[in-house]
Design goal:
The complex is a heterodimer of chains A (244) and B (261). Chain A is an alpha+beta fold. Chain A has 2 helices and 18 strands. Chain A is elongated and about 95 Å long. Chain B is built from 2 helices and 20 strands. In chain B, strands 7, 8, 11, 15 and 18 form a 5-stranded antiparallel beta sheet that branches. Chain B has a 3-stranded antiparallel beta sheet with strand order 12-13-14, with no helix packed on it. Chain B is elongated. Classes of the chains: A alpha+beta (244), B alpha+beta (261). At the A-B interface, helix 1, strand 1, strand 2, strand 7 and strand 14 of A face helix 1, strand 1, strand 2, strand 3 and strand 4 of B.
Chain lengths: 244, 261
């Protein structure tokens, strides 16, 4: 009956992964548009061998079922850069990558050599009509209004595509603050964006640190459980061999 | 343990952040200096349990899957082109731009550089040059017999000539604007170069639509706000400490595993 060891192991393995999630949150404490994640655990019930034992039929293992992203807004920071845009409330910007459209909350945009509005990785930011924004050499004053309309001194160019999804939890993160999904994007009709602002990370350092302490303590308490189990088995073997 | 290397990326990123902040503070009194801001990106994600996988025979679907991010990297350091304060120097050839635009300077290599630092002087030929001796474009030469110079808000250089009542227009200072000022490349000495990311320069007279105006006898100070930088420094230090706590805790967890019998 090695169940105790395996159950303890399942807990320790998931705690280590939870620690990884916390470490990633804290590493990204200053990353624009970053959304913190939490680990969600469930019991994994397994029918035990022997069946009628005192424990009943089931043994509960732990599984980390998913990471849940916290979509609460990060703090807004004024940067005074005309190509910095933050989203108030729901929604994601759409950028065009070689792998298809990707979605992001990071509104740190720039211009590429062709005069296109791009994100930091050089992917075009798309408008509601699915076109990139292209600026001419004579365009000097770039303004982005609250509804996402991008305009210059020579007139409006189009509106930023702000989209949302039926289940934002199902978005997959790819590097650089971008998300990928198979879901159909839904246009956010009443989008509210702010020029000259950037959304900071929504990681709450105090919460993460307390969570980290919790993980660390749980990890060592599992260890002491394993030690005690080891001791119990050793004693049992000793007693039995003495009796024999 | 992955959390060790994840926290290490966090510490490295904050170290870079502190370097940028210290450069801002070091240049607090540099004329025309524009503060820099560090931008971070998250790294790749590892999938443990795919999003959308089924979690039971009944067909319940895992809401999000287990994704573990691998840390952070520095994505960019960019300049913030905010107007700095103006300080009066009463120097004839000191100029500040209020609003958008850059002075144009001809480098010895023939390239044009752009700057907000308007500490100009005259050289032996009576040309307006920077303190490094580079010509300010378009070249302005003052006549030998000029006794005083006025530069107005729209960049006209008006010289008072000995024995003449009317001021003589001896040149026009032009400034340049860019679609994306943050894309200019800094080469030190307060000079910036045009890049594909900045877009092409548009030249114009000061006070024209979209261009700032010129103030004679003033200099633009660095747009570094000491209080803001110090508070950024504190928060960078705290972030650094927290990441080091993660390393310490991960280490403790590893040693716990090591002590198992």
């Amino acid at each position: 009956m090695e169940n105790t060891g395996y159950i303890a192991l399942s807990r320790q393995a998931t705690l280590r992964r939870e620690m990884d999630v916390i470490a990633n949150n804290l590493a990204n404490i200053k990353t624009s548009g970053f959304k913190g994640e939490k680990m969600m655990f469930i019991e994994h019930l397994v029918r035990s061998r022997g069946g009628d034992g005192l424990l009943g039929h089931k043994v509960a293992f732990v599984r980390d079922i998913s990471t849940v992203r916290d979509y609460s807004p990060g703090h807004m920071e004024q940067t005074n850069n005309p190509l910095d845009v933050a989203i108030n409330g729901e929604g994601f910007f759409t950028v065009d990558t070689p792998e298809g459209p990707r979605y992001t909350r990071v509104g740190r945009f720039s211009l590429d050599p062709a005069g296109r509005l791009v994100n930091l990785d050089g992917h075009s930011v798309l408008s509601q009509t699915g076109q990139p924004f292209t600026f001419g050499p004579q365009d000097t004053e770039i303004t982005i209004s609250r509804d996402g309309t991008v305009a210059t001194n020579s007139g409006p160019l189009g509106r930023l595509s702000l989209v949302n999804f039926e289940n934002p939890q199902k978005l997959r993160e790819v590097a650089g603050g971008l998300y990928d999904t198979d879901q159909e994007p839904q246009r956010v009709e009443r989008g509210d964006v702010a020029q000259y602002m950037l959304e900071g990370s929504n990681v709450e350092p105090i919460l993460e640190i307390t969570r980290m302490i919790d993980v660390s303590r749980s990890y060592s308490s599992v260890k002491s459980l394993m030690d005690k189990e080891h001791e119990r088995i050793r004693k049992m073997a000793e007693e039995l061999s003495r009796a024999a | 343990m992955r959390s060790l290397s994840i926290a290490a990326t966090g510490m490295l990123a904050q170290q870079k952040n502190v370097e940028v902040i210290s450069n801002n503070l070091a240049n607090m009194n540099t004329t025309g200096f524009m503060r820099r801001r560090t931008e971070f990106h998250d790294l790749l994600y590892q999938n443990y349990r795919r999003v959308g996988g089924t979690s039971s025979d009944a067909g319940t679907i895992v809401p999000a899957g287990v994704q573990i991010g691998l840390g952070v990297k520095m994505a960019a350091v960019y300049r913030i082109h905010e107007q700095g304060n103006l300080s009066a120097t009463d120097n004839t050839f000191d100029m500040a731009i209020q609003g958008k635009g850059f002075f144009q300077v001809r480098l010895p290599s023939g390239e044009t550089a752009y700057t907000r630092d308007g500490t100009f002087q005259l050289n032996a030929q009576g040309q307006v040059v920077t303190h490094d001796g580079y010509t300010v474009l378009p070249g302005i030469t003052l006549p030998n017999n000029a006794i005083d110079v006025t530069i107005n808000a729209s960049g006209q250089v008006l010289a008072k000539i000995e024995g003449q009542v009317a001021l003589q227009n001896v040149g026009q200072i032009q400034i340049a604007t860019f679609p994306n000022e943050a894309g200019l490349q800094a080469i030190g000495d307060n000079l910036l170069l045009e890049t594909p990311a900045s877009g092409a320069a548009t030249q114009g007279n000061p006070q024209a639509t979209g261009f700032g105006s010129i103030l004679q006898g003033f200099l633009e100070t660095a747009n570094v706000n000491a209080v803001e930088e110090i508070s950024n420094l504190i928060s960078a230090q705290r972030a650094y400490e927290m990441n080091s706590k993660v390393i310490k805790t991960s280490d403790e967890m590893m040693s716990t595993a090591g002590q198992l019998r």
